[in-house]
Structure formats: C-alpha cells, structure tokens
Amino acid sequence: MKEVESQKLIVIVEDDPDVARIIEQVLGDFSFRTVWCRSAGDLLRRLRTLRPDLCIIDLGLPDMDGIEAMQRVRGLSSCGILILTGRAHVSDRVMGLELGADDYMLKPFEPRELVARVRSILRRHEATTGHQGRQVAEFAGWHFNLANNALHSPGGEEHLLSTSEADLLKVFVSNPNRILQREQLMGTRDLVPTDRSIDVRISRLRRKLEPDQNSQAFIKTVYGAGYLFLASVTWGSPGAGK
Ligand code: CA
Q: Which of 126, 165, 177, 178 is 20 to 30 A from 119 in CA distance terms?
C-alpha cells in the first residue's frame, strides 16, 4: 500500500447513492479515504471541518447547481476539483473549467479512468505546491503563498484564488517584467483553452490585485503580444517575514 496516497481525502458530492457507492468503492480499492456528501449543503457544512485534497462534484444536485457549489468550494478551499456529470454540453464543460475545476468527466465513467484522473489532479497540485524555498512570492507589499494559493494584500486582507487563477499568478510571479504570450499563460488543462478563457482569468485576477477596475498597475495588456506582470518579485518561505 502506498502511504502517501492512502492519506489523501476525497469528498464525493453526489445525490445518487448507487453512483456514490461505486465511486467510494473504486477509490477505496486504491487506498484513498472518501467522504460522501449527498447535497451541496451537506458539502459546505462538512468543509468547515474537513480538509479534502480533492472534491468530486456532480453538476445535477438537488439543492444547488453543481457549478455554484464548485465556486463556493473554491472560496473555502484550494483542493482539487473534478466535475463528474451526465451533462455533456460543451458550455457546461467550458464554464466548469473556466470557473476553476481541474478536470471534467462524463457519466457513465470507467472506474480506472476516474482513478487515473484523480491521481493526475493530485500530482499537479503537488507539483505546483512542492517548490521548496520558493513558496511565498512578495511584490509591492503583496504576499502570495504558492503552497495554499492564499494571496494577502499589503493591508493583510486574504484572497483565496481558484486553482486556475493561482496557476496564472504563479506563471506571472515566476516571470516578472517579461511579455508572456497567451500560450505561456495557459494551464495544463485537457481542454484546448480559448482566448476568452485566458481573458476571463486575467480579469478575475485583476479584480483582486488592482486598486480599481480599469487599472493595469500589475498586469499590463501588451496589445498583439500578450501580458506583462510589472513588479519586482522576491521569494521567501511561509515562516519568514510573514
Ligand atoms: Ca445528480
């Protein structure tokens, strides 16, 4: 049994008990710990005490749309999110990924593929949080902790970023004062990202970083070329300085 994987906690948000049972069984076979929530309300209550590594969220939930549930989770946790749904429409898929899901899988699903995708998300999360000694980026009084995606303003206010916003900010703080093309800013998602999906993420990030809506103090648009992160970045560890 692999010790590391056996410690991962996966929350399953699914109103169909038969489907939930199958997911719990297959993940249990691969030594993951699982918790089943049968509604979005149940999930949000449990997240007050649980710290899952990943949530598997059905879009068709009885009490709340799964996309909204996912956004609420994003506000509370930087865990991985896998949407598992019967909704095959491309707009659901694009919206889910734009709003911060790490992956999107359709029902009916192949159990081994589910495990493979869960592992892939967990690996990606570990890869982006495993930079020893480069865990906190500081720029103009801001602190960005790459380990938990927490962004603190100079005044100490905390913003939790979605995975996709945090991935974008990671690329920016690692490459300050350089023109970055759209392709360099795109994540490792399976979906082919559209220009719009990058623009949506940029504007979300700007809303958190910039003093007002039209400001480009940090993230400058370079027309026809890409984007530029204008800041002097220093690196520290979570304990140091902050
Ligand atoms: Ca359902």
A: 165
Taking the C-alpha atoms of residue 132 and residue 147, their distance in angstroms, rounded to an integer, is: 10
Q: Look at the chain and count its residues.
A: 242
Cα(120) to centroid of ligand 1, in Å? 24
Going from the Cα of 16 to the center of ligand 1, the distance in angstroms, rounded, reads: 6
Give the 3-state DSSP-derived string for 58-74, with helices as H, strands as E and coil as C. CCECCCCEHHHHHHHHH
**All domains of the chain, ordered by start, with CATH?**
2-129 (3.40.50.2300), 136-240 (1.10.10.10)
What is the CA(123)–ligand 1 centre distance, in A?
Answer: 27
Residues, CB-to-ion distance under 5 Å, ligand 1: 15, 58, 60
pLDDT tens digits, one per residue of 65-118: 999 999 888 877 788 999 999 988 888 888 888 888 999 999 999 999 999 999
Q: How far is the CA of 27 from the centre of ligand 1 (A)?
A: 19
Q: What value does the mean pLDDT take over residues 56-70?
A: 94
